[in-house]
Task: inverse folding
């Protein structure tokens, strides 16, 4: 088995063509995702936490969306302030950031 | 919270430029991933199981690689026969397909 990560965060980078339906990739997710990965590395977490781009995860009207496994928590992450809160709480300490959780 | 999936499979679709290092995307993962998603839907599993493309998950010399969460099982999936075994066993019944697990 490859590295066993304590958490694996996927950020949706799907960029939908045309303007009919929104998409995470057009709402800034690539900048947030890349910066989040760099901050994760800067904190020395690269052996514990993985940060990976994903295709569409079906939150097009809600995103920028991210999911953290193994907990399966779905987040709306609009900026680096939100992303840092997920890093500080969920990825560092395993605490879910309730205010950013996507609910029905 | 959005749909709660019993399993979420990510297939690496990363396509590396140049020929110096291999990548899952150049080893057939897009065809396998798309067909796997269609078969999952054909089996009526779309409310239980998610199949999503991902960026690089670091298995470039081993892949085509996939991960199934929440279990965090990493698979090498070379063809649709392998993919169907993961569908039959892991995604349908929650049983890990030991012969396809990526080990150190």
Result:
């Amino acid at each position: 088995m490859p590295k066993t990560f304590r958490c694996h965060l996927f950020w949706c980078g799907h960029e939908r063509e045309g303007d009919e339906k929104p998409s995470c990739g057009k709402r800034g997710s690539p900048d947030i995702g890349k910066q989040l990965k760099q901050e994760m590395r800067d904190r020395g977490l690269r052996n514990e936490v993985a940060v990976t781009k994903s295709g569409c995860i079906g939150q097009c009207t809600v995103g920028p969306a991210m999911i953290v496994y193994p907990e399966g928590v779905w987040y709306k992450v609009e900026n680096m302030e939100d992303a840092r809160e997920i890093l500080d709480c969920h990825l560092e300490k395993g605490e879910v950031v309730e205010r950013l959780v996507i609910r029905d």
About this structure: The first strand of chain B starts at residue 7 and ends at 12. The first helix of chain B runs from residue 29 to 42. Chain B is about 25% helix and 20% strand. The helical segments of chain B are 29-42, 80-93.
